[in-house]
Each structure stands twice: as structure tokens, then as C-alpha cells.
Amino acid sequence: MQFGIFTVGDVTPDPTTGRTPTERERIKAMVAIALKAEEVGLDVFATGEHHNPPFVPSSPTTMLGYIAARTERLILSTSTTLITTNDPVKIAEDFAMLQHLADGRVDLMMGRGNTGPVYPWFGKDIREGINLAVENYALLHRLWREDVVNWEGKFRTPLQGFTSTPRPLDGVAPFVWHGSIRSPEIAEQAAYYGDGFFHNNIFWPADHTKRMVELYRARYAHYGHGTPEQAIVGLGGQVFMRRNSQDAVREFRPYFDVAPVYGHGPSLEDFTEQTPLTVGSPQQVIEKTLAFRDYAGDYQRQLFLMDHAGLPLKTVLEQLDLLGEEVVPVLRKEFAKDRPAEVPDAPNHASLLAGARKEGARA
């Protein structure tokens, strides 16, 4: 399994001090968090994509390219690449470029985002959200796999004899996760292509996550990519830790209450009971995360949200120390126990390249 963190890149006042970081401070903090992730032994850093306040990561490949130059092992990913409002030609070229710069340590997560106004800002109609996701990804998939593309669709101008540059590193496209919280059409899309499905279950109860993952697994098998157990699944999660659980609850509560993604809603206690959010000791985080397998099966990637709602950088780095030193080593060991041999490892560039060469030898 791969373990890592994802960020939504919000610029939120610290409710305990009233201070709001500058955009520059927040961007630099995200970089520091990525570097810390590698230092403590995590596998993945993923950034969101947003084009509206209070969020700053409008150019994920710029940030990830900078991080690539300062890291050696970390897989660089996105927690949302807006397949609906970005031009698939630009996505193809940007991430192929990043692949080369990062020596293959790149994958990405396609999503529609959660900000309705972004559609008209980029000349799109939100009512076509699902159709845009389907058509744009169909083109992107071809652009990475065909040297010359002739294409015509509904939402962009046709392409005649077009070659996106640079070509993917070693002729292998970046691995794609399709991220969704509530849309079965996206689980279907991931299954159709044999790509990964990432369920960012930080908001939803276990039974909803279970239904979405089971749908994806069944359709993955339907399209002939393997057994349901061989489907590639990722999950989101959110934690806040202190060695004493009461200290964690007391410290995190003011941040939870005003968080831009769920503040001013259910109480902290209700939210932690009904969703994967864990606020407590490292052992409590371990126990709740291991329970994800009860309803999602053996899966490949676990990402945690740890840096939003105005939490100061110092606190986030302390969280990463606990995650890397006390939580992830135990999770790696426990998730490996009784893991069926047919369940694949998380994809990376080396495994994708080996698979491509094997297919080429058979041909």
C-alpha cells in the first residue's frame, strides 16, 4: 500500500489567533509539508486544484515540479485535476512534462471539483459536468497513447494529425485515479478504462463508501480487467492527533468548528462518529483506519488530509511526525497481514513500465 497526504490548499484564519496567512505563506507551507512527508517516510503528496478564494493551488504542476526538484522518492499527485474545465490537450502535455522532470514519480486524480462557478470561468456549462468528464478523459487517454490523434467531439475544436508533446516518459502514461464522492458515473468511468478509483470519504458514512467501491469493483471485473479484488482503490481520510486523545479533541475543536469544508455543521463528536474523521491518539487513528478494509476491501492507497482549517504549519509538521513515526509503520504491517496474493500493489511508473514491456513481448 501507499500512504500519503493530500491538501486542499485553503487560506483560512487561525481561529485561535485570528491571523490569516498570506498566499505566499500558504504556498510555501504546502511545499514544506510535502518535504516533511518524504522525510517521515510517506509515499505520496497530492495537491488539489482550485481557482477561487480561499484556495491557492491553481497550478498543480508548477508546485509539483518545484517539489520534484527537492525530493527523491515521493510520488507527486493531485487530489483533483479538473477534467471538466481544463483542456485535455494541456493536461496531457503538462503532466507528461512533469513525468520527465520527476523521473516518473507522477500520477494524477481526475475530478470535477466542488466549486460550481469554475465552469463559466473557463467557458463551460456545469449542467454538462458528467459529459465533460467523460469526453475530455476519452481524449486525454488517447493523447497519451497515440502518437498522432484525429479526434472530434462536442466540447472542443477537432484535432487533425495532432501530437501532444512531450510524449509520456518511456511511452507509459501517468497512472490515473478517478476521484468521486457521490457520482456512480465516475466509478463506471474508472472501471471502463481499468484505472484507479479514489473515494474521498472524509464526508460520508461507511455504507456509502462501501456501495461506491463495490460498484467500481464489480464494473472493473465486468470490463475484463481482472477480478473485483484486483481493482485499484484509494481512500481519503482525515486525522488530528495528540498522544492524549483529550488533548487532541480540545486542540482541534476550534479549527473543526470553522473549517471551510465542514464547519458550522454537525458537532465534532457527531462527525467523528459518522465519518472517517479521527481526532485522538495515534492508536485510535490506527484502529479506525484499519477498519476501512472492513467495508472497502484490500486497497492500494490511503491519503490523509492534515493541513486545512487554519492549522498552523508547526502543528501540521508535528502531525506528520506522529503519522510517519507511530501510525504508518503499524498500518503497513497490519494491512499486509492476510492480504491475498492476487491483490495488486499500488501502481507506480516502474510497475507500469514493466507491464507495458510484458505486453509488448506478448505481442
TrEMBL record:
Oxidoreductase as UniProt keyword: yes
InterPro entries per UniProt: Bact_Lucif_Oxidored, LLM_FMN-dep_put, Luciferase-like_dom, Luciferase-like_sf
Coiled coil residues, start to end: none
Alphabetized Pfam families for the sequence: Bac_luciferase (PF00296)
Residue stretches making up the Luciferase-like domain: 1-295
Top-level taxon in the UniProt lineage: Bacteria
Keywords: Monooxygenase, Oxidoreductase
Entry keyword Cell membrane: no
Entry-linked Gene3D superfamilies: Luciferase-like domain (3.20.20.30)
Residue ranges, annotated region (Disordered): 339-363
SUPFAM superfamilies found in the cross-reference section: Bacterial luciferase-like (SSF51679)
Protein's name in the database: 5,10-methylene tetrahydromethanopterin reductase
Organism of provenance: Streptomyces ambofaciens
Record lineage: Bacteria, Bacillati, Actinomycetota, Actinomycetes, Kitasatosporales
